[in-house]
Amino acid sequence: MKDQIRQFAKEHEEEAIQLLKEIGKIPSPSHHEEKRAAYLKQWFIKNGFEQCMIDDMNNVIVEIPCPQNPDIVLFMAHIDVVFDDETELPMHQEGSILHAPGIGDDTANLVCMLMMAKWLLKNKDRLKMSVMIVCDACEEGLGNLDGCKNIMKNHGDRIKYFYSLDGNIGYCVNDAVGSHRYEITVHTQGGHSYSDFGNDNAIHIASKLICDLYNQPLPEEERTTFNAGKISGGSTINSIAQSVSLLYEYRSSNEACLQKMKEQLSAIIRKYTDEGKDIKIHLLGERPGSVMQGNADFDAWTEKNMRTVEQYYENPIQAKASSTDANIPLSKGVFANTIGTIYGKGAHTREEWMDLSSICTGIQVAVALLEQYMK
Fold first, then answer.
1. CA separation for the pair 276, 117 (Å, rounded)
2. What would the CATH number be for the domain defined by 178-287?
3. I want to staple 138 with a disulfide (CB 3.0 to 4.6 A). Which of 146, 258, 260, 263 is the partner?
4. Domain with residues 2-176+290-371, CATH architecture
5. The pTM is what?
């Protein structure tokens, strides 16, 4: 079977590269993936997938049912790009290196999944369980994994195994780094810097608040981090600032640690509001952590997936924790891994690139993962 998979990948390598160049130019910011979703739906229909739909979150969904087993193994790759471009994304090639925003995260992995879909269609009679392929929306940033959340809400009772194709080859995500993200806003009366001196200054209060956040104790059960990522507000040098906004997040792979950080944040905010300060806190997004730590069956499944990838990659695969679409199934007790299929650098920068020579390997990895669920 390995020789057949390798031959298939070689035969479809050039097709995949041309498809990558087409899809990679289509703008697809989180919450506005309509153009890329429409293109992908047409691609599926053109290639023989008659039952293809776009749901209300811009997820493109194809299911190949297995009459003997309605349970689903799901393969997912996200279609949104971290940047807000609404016009054609810039792209240029230097040798085997293809440059474009979002080209590796996650367009190249998406294309490897599409080639896997072609293998699936030719071999659907060998399925041991149903397969769902999802080109999902809203994975990046404040998309908050909303596309994956919608898939799990609508189909989660049937999903037994979950693969997100994302990131570089060589890594397998088996633990979910969860996060809570907030906008914290401080309001004061403000005034003139001289005549109203002594009035509360929103910048001063926000600064003290940040110091309190940075002095809080961290949970010890699992690695937990926090960050004040952006602060904005005030008006002029001779005005007492009336309003300041702060973007703040904390992260951990342990759900209990996330809840401890949530309680500590609430206590810090409450200290200020009890003193009469006008502070508002708005939740921007939540990514849940995993509940799978210590599950021996899940660990064995992950190990099997890593060994499968290693058949087509020259180095050992490393397991790691990260924040990906797999967060959602892992938080619900569904076996889930995020696995990279290609090689590139510069994710989340406008200088991002991927190596086209890794596409052939990526196709093989995607097909080999699928083959585990075929006779």
1. 59
2. 3.30.70.360
3. 146
4. 3-Layer(aba) Sandwich (3.40)
5. 0.91
